[in-house]
């Protein structure tokens, strides 16, 4: 394990952007496999409950074994490789430079960490979600109108959930982790995050998404006013 860490540090020192791209692509792809596994498990449990509750007229469809959609894994992995890796690398480098040099805040101080968390949550977070859901829609062959509808359904639930989690992750990141390792730190959490985002994107018209429909409708009415 120590040798692997040394090898990674050496790769990061010699080829920082390429290393971040490859590691991000790998973790995002792994996250999508996790999302497909969770989705399959959820549907299987729902099917079993339906069979138990309706024994007189059980569903004809039998449980199916999990078959990974490798095309979808490749699409998600490409997002991590082509977007999250390079953009994340330069984002953390520039964010640290701007707050430390331009704003002249003391590194690891309360104001320094707070400013970073606020900038990351208000700027980078929402933009990443918007790009992710748009990219996944277009890469899956959907039309512009379909992508817009999917973004309306998926963006707000994902944003609200991540707003309650990522600030705590980033406080530890910006307080204790050196800048060159911050994307790696985030990528480990992105393994769970990409699973969550991919799972949301796969839910289509899940009933729980209707909870957010009044908010989306209200925003649309304000935009038309």
From TrEMBL:
It comes from the Eukaryota. One of its GO terms (cellular component) is membrane. Keywords: Membrane, Transmembrane, Transmembrane helix. It is a multi-pass membrane protein. It is found in: Membrane. Its main location: membrane. The keyword Protein biosynthesis does not apply. Belongs to the peroxisomal membrane protein PXMP2/4 family. This is PXMP2/4 family protein 4 isoform X5. The gene is LOC105048282.
């Amino acid at each position: 394990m120590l040798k692997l860490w040394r090898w990674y540090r050496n790769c990061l020192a010699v080829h920082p952007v390429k290393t971040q791209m490859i590691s991000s692509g790998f973790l995002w792809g792994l996250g999508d496999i996790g999302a497909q596994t969770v989705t399959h498990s959820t549907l299987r449990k729902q099917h079993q409950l339906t069979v138990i509750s309706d024994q007189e007229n059980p569903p004809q469809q039998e449980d199916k074994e999990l078959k990974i959609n490798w095309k979808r894994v490749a699409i998600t992995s490409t997002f991590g490789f082509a977007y999250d890796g390079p953009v994340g690398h330069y984002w953390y480098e520039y964010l640290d430079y701007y707050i430390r040099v331009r704003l002249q805040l003391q590194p690891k101080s309360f104001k320094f960490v707070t400013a970073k968390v606020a900038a990351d949550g208000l700027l980078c977070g929402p933009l990443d979600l918007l790009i992710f859901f748009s990219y996944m829609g277009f890469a899956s062959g959907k039309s512009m109108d379909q992508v817009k509808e999917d973004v309306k359904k998926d963006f707000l639930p994902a944003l609200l959930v991540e707003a309650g989690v990522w600030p705590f992750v980033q406080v530890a990141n910006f307080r204790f982790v050196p800048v060159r390792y911050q994307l790696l730190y985030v990528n480990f959490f992105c393994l769970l995050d990409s699973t969550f985002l991919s799972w949301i994107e796969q839910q289509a018209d899940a009933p729980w998404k209707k909870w957010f429909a009044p908010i989306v409708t209200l925003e649309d009415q304000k935009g038309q006013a």
